[in-house]
Every structure is written in C-alpha cells, then in structure tokens.
C-alpha cells in the first residue's frame, strides 16, 4: 500500500476506476451506496479487490462521472428529483442503469395501468357544489413520470406487444407535451429515454417521437381548464 493510502483517515477509502481515475470517499458517502458498502465490507476476502497501491478496484462498467452525480443526488426526497437534478448533457439511460447496478432502485416498477391512473384519474366529485373538478397532484404525477422512464430502461413491459408500445408512446406524448406539469429536465430526460427505448424495440415510432418533440418545442399546450393543482 502506498504512502497516500496510509495517510488517509480510517473513515476514507480510495477507489480506482477503469479509466485510471482515483476517487476518495468518506464513510458516509460509501454508506449511501449499497454496492460500495458491500464491496468494502467483503474486500478482504478477495485478493483482486484492491490494486497494488491499496485502491479498491471499481467494476470497469461504473463511470466516475455518473457515480459522482449519484453521490450528490442520493438520497432523494422524491423520485422526480433524479431527473430534475440530472444535467441535460448526462445520459439518463446510463444514469438509471448505474443506479440499478448500485442497488438504489428499491421502488417496484409501475404497471401501465398504474401509470394511466396516476396521469389521468384526476376527476374529483365535490358534494358541496355537486360538480366534478380536475385535481392535479403535481408531485405524484412527476414522480410517476420518472418511475415510468426508469421502468422503460429496465425493460419492465412486454416489448413484443404493439399495444404496449402504443400505450407507452401515448404516455410519453403526455409527459413531453405537458409543459405546465413537468419540469423541463423531466421532459428532456424522459424524451431521451423514450428515444433509446423505441430505437431498440420499435424503430418505426422514432419519426413520430421526433415530430412530437419539434411540435412541443415550437407550440406549447395550454393548461387544462377547471384544474385544481395541489
């Protein structure tokens, strides 16, 4: 072990990435990430866990840039914060795959019916006025939009069913178009995830998706009427 590692506080560990970069983390930072916690605690049982300088050898598929973002982002208060905080020049698909590999995605993937209900079952009856009102729970639908995008990355839906692809496209269209409801970063990253998904599983929808993006950039939709936002 080199002098640098000997001088590190006992609560600090250094990790070497596939590109040769070394990142030093505190115990608190390590404990944020289940993968890192398990790796450090079991490293003594594996000779190859450290290099000749004493650095823990991170899996070559883990990107230092993505890991730094995840360390800064987690724990999140709301699921939507993942995409809101993610810079628009980051690859959202790679970010989700990293979070999944690192053991951070503990929520179950929503079914398409759950996505539908969250976005569109918003009619509330008011007995005092004997009328119906649209009630939009912004936090709920923004969280669901990001959970839905995560599920697409994780291939949670039947990729062989054209009806499933049509439903997915419809929900993507809603998210991208609803300027009033969704943060710009959420819409941007959901679009990028959808672009990746359709390129792999339904290439014929890519042109429709791109046309939709152009339309929503040039013409923003209006807010639904009779809408109570909470």
What does this 3D model show about the protein?
- It contains eleven helices and six strands.
- By secondary structure, the protein is mainly alpha-helical.
- It has two domains: 3-62, 2-Layer Sandwich (Potassium Channel Kv1.1, Chain A), CATH 3.30.710.10; 112-229, no CATH class.
- The strands form two sheets. Strands 2-1-3 form a three-stranded mixed sheet. Strands 4-5-6 form a three-stranded mixed sheet, with no helix packed on it.
- Strand 1 and strand 2 (22-26) form a beta hairpin.
- Helix 7 (112-120) packs antiparallel against helix 8, helix 9 runs antiparallel to helix 10 (184-201) and helix 9 runs parallel beside helix 11 (206-218).
- The longest helix is centred in the C-terminal third of the chain and has 18 residues, at 184-201.
- The radius of gyration is 22 Å and the shape is elongated.
- Mean pLDDT is 84; it is low at 1-5 and 221-230.
Key features of this structure:
3-stranded mixed beta sheet; mainly alpha; single chain; disordered N terminus; disordered C terminus; Potassium Channel Kv1.1, Chain A; 230 residues
In short:
The protein has 230 residues and is mostly helical. It has 11 helices and 6 strands. The chain has helices at residues 3-7, 27-32, 34-42, 64-73, 81-85, 92-101, 112-120, 138-153, 162-177, 184-201, 206-218, and strands at 12-16, 22-26, 56-57, 123-126, 131-136, 227-229.
């Amino acid at each position: 072990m080199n002098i640098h590692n000997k001088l590190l506080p006992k609560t600090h560990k250094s990790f070497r990435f596939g590109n040769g970069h070394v990142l030093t983390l505190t115990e608190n930072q390590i404990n944020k990430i289940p993968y890192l916690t398990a790796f450090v605690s079991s490293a003594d049982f594996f000779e190859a866990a450290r290099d000749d300088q004493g650095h823990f050898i991170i899996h070559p598929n883990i990107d230092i840039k993505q890991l730094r973002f995840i360390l800064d982002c987690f724990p999140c208060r709301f699921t939507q914060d993942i995409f809101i905080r993610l810079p628009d020049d980051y690859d959202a698909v790679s970010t989700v795959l990293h979070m999944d590999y690192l053991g951070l995605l503990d929520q179950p993937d929503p079914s398409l019916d759950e996505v539908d209900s969250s976005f569109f079952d918003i009619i509330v009856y008011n007995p005092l006025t004997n009328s119906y009102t649209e009630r939009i729970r912004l936090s709920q639908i923004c969280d669901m939009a990001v959970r839905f995008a995560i599920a697409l990355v994780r291939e949670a839906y039947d990729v062989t069913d054209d009806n499933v692809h049509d439903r997915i496209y419809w929900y993507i269209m809603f998210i991208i178009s609803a300027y009033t409801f969704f943060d710009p970063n959420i819409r941007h990253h959901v679009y990028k995830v959808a672009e990746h998904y359709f390129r792999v599983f339904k290439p014929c929808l890519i042109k429709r998706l791109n046309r939709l993006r152009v339309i929503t950039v040039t013409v923003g939709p209006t807010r639904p009427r009779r809408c109570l936002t909470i």
